Amino acid sequence: MFRVLVVSSWMQPDCVWLLTINMVLSDYDSSVLCVCYPQILPPEIYNILWDQILRACYHTLLDGFSAVRKCTNEGRALMQLDFRHFQVKVESLTRLRPLLTHILSKHT
């Protein structure tokens, strides 16, 4: 029998660590906006702040994923799904576009 995958359940991350990271980044974004109120933070400074934070987040995630010694195909798929959930959430918070290319281009 075929298993039906509901898209709404697929888009909901069920990892506690992913939800925690997303919550912290959302809090950071709102606190930056509150600190700068009533003025607007210049885009260059805003982008530098997000660039540094996202660089640390991406390195931490990729180092953690690469440290796994034994992993099934399903486990790798879940890691990719977690990474994509993280990326979608971050793209909704920041003005950097394209996000991953922007972060990784500074490492080469």
Characteristic key phrases:
elongated; about 70% helix; disordered N terminus; VPS50; Syndetin C-terminal domain-containing protein; about 110 residues
Blueprint (SSEs and pairs):
Elements: H1 7-10, H2 16-36, H3 43-66, H4 73-93, H5 99-105
Helix pairs in contact: 2-4
InterPro entries: Syndetin_C (IPR019514), VPS50 (IPR040047)
Protein name: Syndetin C-terminal domain-containing protein
Domain Syndetin C-terminal: 21-99
Structure description:
The chain has one domain (13-105). The chain is mostly helical. The model is unreliable at 1-10 (pLDDT under 50). It has helices spanning 7-10, 16-36, 43-66, 73-93, 99-105. It is 71% helix and 0% strand.
Helix vs. strand class? mainly alpha
How much strand content do the residues show? under 5%
Question: For the residues shown, what is the average pLDDT?
Answer: 77
Largest sheet: none
How many separate helices? 5
What is the string of helix and strand elements?
HHHHH
Number of DSSP strands? 0
Helical residue percent? over 70%
Assembly type of the shown chains? single chain
Principal-axis shape: elongated
- Count of domain modules: 1
| Unreliable segments of 5+ consecutive residues | 1-10
Distance, first to last CA:
47 Å
